[in-house]
């Protein structure tokens, strides 16, 4: 294992950034329960569409390892479906069950050998993007809180209490497997309009039992129970991240928490359930959480929860993910918003920064940023997304 952190630190201090941003603090270590990170750079979950029946190919392990060698300290897997037949809409995305465990273990091992750490992102598709006329969900039930893809668009069935118990048990089973194969933690996917987020958002949660209602304290109950059950399974030392977002693939303006007071209720439920880290998924890391607040959603989350926070969105790019999916190229340069990133980090808005598309484009992105080698960074191009961009475009077309 190669330790690049001290060299990067020295290089950062020595090199004058074009916009005089001091990024050195992003190369400081951080400890979260049993996890010891040498810097603050994370690669967030990003589907590549390379899996075969939920099994990751060797190519995925190599791809993760290359980013770990390039300085990413924490790699979060693409969203991996939990072990339940309703959890996944396509065979090309990952699944974590007994039959796929070995290959996911190969990913963990490759990342460790390259000096990084690995979280498995565990999720369930819910009713998102289920196209009744398409080839998704062949033969499996479509479950969601209220049988809605989005307000006014019914898809599948509202989950019964027995269904929810089975889904919760599937999260627990897959978390157990994640720990067993050597993952350093898990991330519970409760964002972007997928199952757990469909509980959080009033637009898709119309239940009148204890898991729904106008009060966010009720809507967070099932996702928090999932986190609690996973915590009971994995023990006290194993880190659990919870990823949430306001935006959905079906509605970019949606809001789960309409105010800081609602956000506080949501966070408290997750903290009580055992969350260690919040990964706050925003399209641009610097966006204000609400129109009357300069603080980002990550900043509010850190302030209200007191937990370490991962921020994300558009680092090194001029276009956000949604703009990429709609066909816009980034205009560069690579260091475009790094001064703003440094400023927000120094203002304690977040503890870790996730860098998605820039890491897809250049496996050495973190190392090059550390060394101030701006001109050597390979800029992200739409073509780097491969088939996944086409699918996302198609899927958001179906969802809109
Ligand atoms: C191709 C692609 C696939 C993605 N798949 C996932 C996923 O599986 N799970 C998830 O939580 N987010 C997913 N995302 C969102 C990213 O994790 C990230 O939040 C987003 O790309 C913004 O970061 P960036 O601006 O640095 O790219 C995906 C994004 C892209 C571009």
Explain how this protein is built.
The chain has 400 residues and is an alpha/beta fold. The protein has one domain (5-399): TIM Barrel (Alpha-Beta Barrel), CATH 3.20.20.70. It is 35% helix and 15% strand. It has 14 helices and 15 strands. Strands 3-4-6-11-12-13-14-15 form an eight-stranded parallel beta barrel, surrounded by five helices. A two-stranded antiparallel ribbon has the order 1-2. Helix 1 crosses helix 13, helix 7 runs parallel beside helix 8 and helix 8 (260-273) crosses helix 9. The longest helix is centred in the middle third of the chain and has 20 residues, at 161-180. The protein is globular. The model is unreliable at 1-18 and 131-137 (pLDDT under 50).
Instruction: Describe the main β-sheet briefly.
Output: 8 strands, parallel, barrel
The CATH class turns out to be: Alpha Beta
Mean pLDDT: 91
**Strand element count:** 15
What is the radius of gyration computed over CA atoms, rounded to a whole number of angstroms?
20 Å
Which regions have little confidence, pLDDT < 50, spanning 5+ residues? 1-18, 131-137
């Amino acid at each position: 294992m190669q330790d690049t952190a001290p060299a990067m630190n020295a290089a950062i201090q020595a090199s004058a950034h074009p916009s005089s941003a001091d990024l050195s603090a992003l190369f400081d270590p951080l400890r979260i329960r049993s996890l010891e990170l040498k810097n603050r750079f994370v690669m967030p979950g990003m589907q590549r569409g390379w899996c075969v029946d939920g099994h990751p190919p060797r190519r995925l392990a190599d791809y993760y390892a290359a980013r770990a060698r390039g300085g990413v300290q924490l790699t979060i897997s693409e969203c991996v479906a939990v072990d339940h037949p309703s959890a996944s809409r396509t065979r090309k995305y990952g699944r974590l069950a007994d039959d796929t465990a070995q290959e996911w273990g190969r990913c963990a091992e490759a990342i460790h050998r390259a000096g990084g750490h690995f979280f498995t992102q565990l999720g369930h598709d819910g009713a998102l993007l289920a196209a009744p006329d398409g080839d998704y969900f062949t033969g499996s039930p479509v479950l969601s809180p209220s049988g809605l893809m989005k307000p006014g668009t019914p898809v599948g069935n509202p989950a019964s209490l027995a269904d929810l118990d089975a889904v919760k048990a599937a999260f627990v089973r897959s978390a157990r497997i994640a720990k067993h194969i050597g993952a350093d933690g898990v991330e519970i996917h409760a964002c972007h309009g997928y199952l757990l987020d469909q509980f959080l958002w009033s637009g898709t949660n119309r239940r009148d039992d204890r898991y729904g209602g106008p009060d966010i304290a009720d809507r967070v109950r099932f996702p928090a129970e999932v986190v609690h059950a996973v915590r009971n399974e994995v023990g006290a030392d194993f880190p659990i991240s919870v990823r949430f977002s306001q935006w959905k693939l079906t509605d970019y303006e949606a809001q789960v928490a309409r105010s800081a007071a609602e956000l506080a209720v949501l966070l408290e439920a997750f903290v009580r359930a055992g969350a260690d880290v919040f990964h706050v998924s925003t399209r641009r890391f610097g966006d204000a959480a609400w129109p009357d607040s300069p603080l980002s959603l990550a900043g509010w989350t850190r302030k209200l929860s007191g937990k370490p926070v991962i921020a994300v969105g558009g680092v090194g790019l001029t276009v956000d993910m949604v703009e990429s999916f709609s066909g816009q190229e980034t205009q560069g340069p690579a260091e475009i918003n790094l001064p703003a990133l440094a400023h927000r980090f120094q203002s304690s808005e977040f503890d870790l920064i996730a860098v998605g598309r820039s890491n897809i484009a250049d496996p050495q992105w973190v190392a090059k940023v550390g060394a101030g080698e701006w001109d050597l960074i390979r800029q992200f191009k739409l073509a780097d997304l491969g088939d996944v961009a086409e699918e996302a475009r198609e899927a958001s077309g179906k969802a809109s």
